[in-house]
Amino acid sequence: xxxxxxxxxxxxxxxxxxxxxxxxxxxxxxxxxxxxxxxxxxxxxxxxxxxxxxxxxxxxxxxxxxxxxxxxxxxxxxxxxxxxxxxxxxxxxxxxxxxxxxxxxxxxxxxxxxxxxxxxxxxxxxxxxxxxxxxxxxxxxxxxxxxxxxxxxxxxxxxxxxxxxxxxxxxxxxxxxxxxxxxxxxxxxxxxxxxxxxxxxxxxxxxxxxxxxxxxxxxxxxxxxxxxxxxxxxxxxxxxxxxxxxxxxxxxxxxxxxxxxxxxxxxxxxxxxxxxxxxxxxxxxxxxxxxxxxxxxxxxxxxxxxxxxxxxxxxxxxxxxxxxxxxxxxxxxxxxxxxxxxxxxxxxxxxxxxxxxxxxxxxxxxxxxx
Length: 370
Hints:
By secondary structure, this protein is an alpha+beta fold. It folds into two domains: 47-242, Thrombin, subunit H, CATH 2.40.10; 247-369, PDZ domain (Pdz3 Domain). It contains six helices and 22 strands. A hairpin with a 2-residue loop joins strand 2 and strand 3. Residues 25-32, 59-68, 175-179 and 354-370 have low confidence and may be disordered.
């Protein structure tokens, strides 16, 4: 018979051995995960690009001087040798777009498809990229809360920075102001200024989202980051090629519409227009007078879009309806925009170019008095 204190000693020794084995196994697994992530990062890093933009300032300077422009910073991901996915707010009203590759070389780019209300855009490069395999797009419908993910981008201009986290939740939510509902992936991977438009990868190195925005009280990362699910992005700007207008507008509340003598309950007030964009080609005019409404700055004095192809822009739903109608225009079909310009109605017509919905020359304009 084994004495009690010897039996207890043997049990303690066995428990220690078991704990040591478990700890060792966990360490090996953790090291393997780190190694796998390092390999995956090395594989996909070259597909991530830095995006720098130049835009005309949205507000006039107080001293009356002409500013040289505003420089923007964001990220993107190469999905074809001449195409990059990014966030719409990074490039929507950019006058010039420059894409910087991992080797330091640059390409000029232009927006060829954009869905501002879902915050995703497709860029076409002026010359294809060689020597880099484009990123693989995953199936975001298979993503689940708890999945490990990572973001690669240029936070504060520090290019090709890796941050790691998990999928916190999946949302059917609005990305910008309640206009268009898209699938969003919430993650606790650190996201900061400059990450916008960058890819959200799964552990296999597939792109499952495009970084859109954060919710933060401090202005920095607080673990509440959101990416547009890649299936939504694919549907909106790759498969269907949403029309890029090249302007930012504000849907007027009824009281402000009355104050501006808008002949309907609302309208889309144009704030800013990108150079060489369809909006500029149409002859639309941006606002140039700054006012404050409820303590918030607003530019006025520009065109107010009243209708697009007969659809009155009086509510978020009508904006969505007009957007879908423009997207579904067949080649050669005419698009008619009705605007209010300095108290007068003006009708602008143009024919989007075949396949790209970019305006052709020969714009027709007709003026009516209100």
